[in-house]
Amino acid sequence: xxEELNTRRSFLKRAGTAATVLTGxxxxxxxxxxxxxxxxxSNMSGGVVTGRSRKKEILYKKTGSWSLFYDVAK
Length: 74
Fold this sequence. Notes:
Distance between the termini: 84 Å
Strand content: under 5%
Structural class: mainly alpha
Helix content: 55-70%
Largest sheet: none
Number of strands: 0
Number of helices: 2
Radius of gyration: 28 Å
């Protein structure tokens, strides 16, 4: 019985140590990562979510289907 209790205690000690190390590493990563101001809570973007992509965003490309859609929508 004593051996079983010691085994459980050693397991709990190792699990507690592992949880402490994991928590410490998460806190360290969170403290060292950069914060980017964007979205509704940001004063810099006016509520518009902005990304860091260098690609050009194409919102509209004139095609026959779009022309038909706009003609019908009028």
